[in-house]
Amino acid sequence: MTMTPSDAAARRAVRPVICYPTETLPAPDLALYRRARDGARKVAEVTVAPREAATFRADAGQFFRITSVEGPQVGDLNLWNSRDLSERFYSGKTRALHGTHLTEGERMWSSFPHLRPMATIVADTLSWYGIDDYGGSVHDVIGTRCDPYTGNLLSGTQYHHCCHSNLTRALADELGVSAAGAEPHVHDVLNVFMCTGFTRDTGQYFMKASPVRPGDHLEFFAEIDLLGALSACPGGDCSDEHSSDTAACYPLLVEVFAPEPGALDGWESPPVNGYDRSHGR
Question: pLDDT tens across 240-250, in order?
Fold first, then answer.
C-alpha cells in the first residue's frame, strides 16, 4: 500500500483550487481611511519593553501603529473586542482568507460566531519584502506564539518570558485577574515583523532574521472597539531562537491616533456575521 502508484505524477499534477475566493469579501475603503489618517492626532502611546508585553486600547474608527524604535524586533499581537473578550482574533480564518502573511488592505478577522473585520492594515513599510527565495515573508498568521508548554515538551524548561506568558501577564494586569484567569483568553497571534515560512522539502515552520529596522511600522484601522496586547518576543529578530535570555531584544512602540470629527462620515463599524446560527436545526 505504500508503493508509489503508476499514476503518481498525474495525481501530483492536479491543479490546485483556491479554497476561499475573496472577490466577494467586503472591501475596506482605504482611500477614506487614509484621508482620515492624514488629520488624525495621537491620543495614546505605550512602549513594550523587551521580553515583556503591554496592552492598549483603540476605539472603532481610530488607528494604531506598531513601530520598531531601537533595533530589529518582532512582536506577537493579540486583539479582542474590548466589550466582549469572547470575540477575538481568528488567525486560522484570516490565513484561509488572505494567505500566510498579511499586508496593506488585508484584515484581521474575528472568531466565530462573529466573523467580521477587527482591524484593517492601512500601512506596511515592509510591504517591499514580498516572498523571498526560501518562501519566507513578514507579518505571519501561521505561527502560534512561543510558549512555555512547547519549551517544556521539547527541552524540559520553565521559561516565563515567552510571548504566551508575556501576553498572559499583561492581560491579567489589564483585567485585574490572576494569570490563570487571563490565560484562556490568550490566542494565536499576528507575528508582527517576523519573517517566516514553510520549508519546501519537509514542510516545517521556519523563521529567519526579520528585515525590520528602526522606523519601520505596521499601522491598522480599528474596525471595532479593540483591546490589544503586544509582546516584544524574547527572540529579538528571531534570527536564531525565539525563547531566549541572550538574544538581542528591543522595545516596540504602540501609538493610537484619533481622526478629526467628521473625517469618517459614511463609515460604519461592521456588524457581526449574518449567519442565522440555526445550524440546520
Answer: 887 788 899 99
